[in-house]
Amino acid sequence: MALPALDPADIAALDDLLTDDERAVRSSVRQMLDKSVEPHIADWFERGAIPEIRELARELGSLGVLGMHLEGYGCAGMSATEYGVACLEIEATDSGLRSLVSVQGSLAMYAIWRWGSEEQKQEWLPRMAAGEAIGCFGLTEPDHGSDPGALTTRARKAGSDWVLDGRKMWISNAPYADVAVVWARTDEGIRGFVVPTDVPGFSAPEIKHKMSLRASATGELVLDGVRLPASAVLPEVRGLKGPLSCLNEARYGIVWGALGAARSSLEAARQYAIDRVQFGRPIASFQLTQQKLADMSLEYIKGYLLAVHLGRRKDAGLLRPEQVSIGKLNNVREAIEICRTARTILGANGISLEYPVIRHQNNLESVLTYEGTVEMHTLVLGQALTGIAAFR
């Protein structure tokens, strides 16, 4: 039997790991992105804004990728692996766009879907799944990032109402969100609140002058005596279990998404090396360039195999948070190294937005840090390996 032809863009035949349904998801997401986003994304990154963000959110909703791994309430109910494949394709276009999808589905929507009341679910989830309402997730504070248990945003009882005071920082989607899931300290422990962004005392000023995730709007959340009814609290959870469960969902999407940025940069470098002629021949013919391409390909392949493995475990209900940390730590760390190496192959052209590499590299500097820094995920694995917590 003749061996199948070798595809230089998929030398390990990773495509064979996916089911027909997973490949169909990938194809539909890629088709939408190629039509509606790819022609504009470099300009959006340079401008630091997506001009028609609500129209794009509705298009993503029509595609079914907002909260796509959740069941009911207008959500697509797809598998974890299908969600992962979608994240990979979205981040191959831009990490900022994947951040929009992740914050919407894996943080804001998941918090309401997992911990909210039926009234909260009915009010928000169908609109969010359709892209008619945009959500954000308020956990990180100006002085509390890796240590969310020390958060200082307070919620106090005022009769039957709650009154919230505090600030959140580095909140994706905040400037245009319709609803914020906000975590605050109460006399009963840390609680979550579903906060419509048009309530008095709430504001979300945008953070400017970013050099990373420029196509994703980031802001503060300022809560100055925000009064909410008792029905605003997430009734099914107390303590850090609530926000950490949401972060675990988002981290899983990053395991896949970072590979998209890596794949885009690797393919740009491979094609550039074939086309670029120096000393009378393509730079792809030089051994050092081939070594770079080979090493980048190996790390991408290993990361992809890890992502598929974790996706299958998640679909089987067997995925532990420590295993998500393995994927987040490895895949983002290797993806940013792939981008940096790809940049060296492109030379000076590597810093131009005519190519996607520097945009992906800059974006991954944020992805490397958010949803748990390299240091924190390293210590998670260290504790799993030794049984000793080294966080403090």
UniProtKB/TrEMBL annotation:
Pfam families (UniProt xref): Acyl-CoA_dh_1, Acyl-CoA_dh_M, Acyl-CoA_dh_N
GO molecular function: fatty-acyl-CoA binding; flavin adenine dinucleotide binding; glutaryl-CoA dehydrogenase activity
Cofactor: FAD
One of the GO BP terms on file: fatty-acyl-CoA biosynthetic process
Transit peptide in keyword set: yes
Family statement: Belongs to the acyl-CoA dehydrogenase family.
Stated name of the protein: Acyl-CoA dehydrogenase
Species: Nocardioides agri
Lineage: Bacteria, Bacillati, Actinomycetota, Actinomycetes, Propionibacteriales
